[in-house]
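ok so dumb question maybe but i'm new to this and my supervisor (M.) told me to 'just get the structure for Chromosome partition protein Smc' and walked off. so i did the thing. is this what she meant?? sequence i used:
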Amino acid sequence: MYLKSLELQGFKSFPDKIKLSFDKGLTAVVGPNGSGKSNIGDAVRWVLGEQSTKTLRGNKMEDVIFSGTEARKPVGFAAVTLTIDNEQGELASEDREVSVTRRLFRSGESEYQINGKNVRLKDINELFMDTGLGRDGYSIIGQGRIAEIVGAKSNERRDIFEEAAGISKFRYKKQEAERRLHAAQENLVRLTDIVSELE
Ligand code: ATP
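this is what came out, is it supposed to look like this??
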């Protein structure tokens, strides 16, 4: 599995549609200060479902939409598409190439897509769970992250190891099953009340 390309439109300092293609192996992004290198990393985080505006270096989610310059008007939406090679089937998808898209409009409306089909954020999270690439994965190491990991509490560090070991998915599924069981038990209590009222 490797990143094949990243398409940006209206995201932070990139008003026009651009496509960055990556080859296998190492890719370095170089450029002067303030030219948008970190914004590319932010785009990868964002398309993977990042919800923290702080992690995205903004105050509100709308800050990811190109806000205009002296020469250009602001745009109405931001869109990012990340295409991943899935030849080895590491992602839980039949497709050999998986594209994930996220769009956000100034109205606040947002959408996520996997291979062009509208999905929920939950589906994006599930797709990347235990691959290391997801929103909470360990593949994106931002500035200060190493110090954060070293200084993390033992349970936080355990989460990182569990993601690497592929256990997170099972923990998530267990929690989902417990939540559904709890809801079913509550329904049962309600039903029992109704039955006893009718008797
Ligand atoms: P450095 O090498 O100093 O870390 P960098 O190349 O990583 O810089 P970034 O932090 O990616 O640069 O980009 C900063 C630029 O992006 C700033 O000029 C900022 O004004 C611009 N920018 C960020 N958000 C937006 C936005 N919503 N609309 C327009 N421009 C934006």
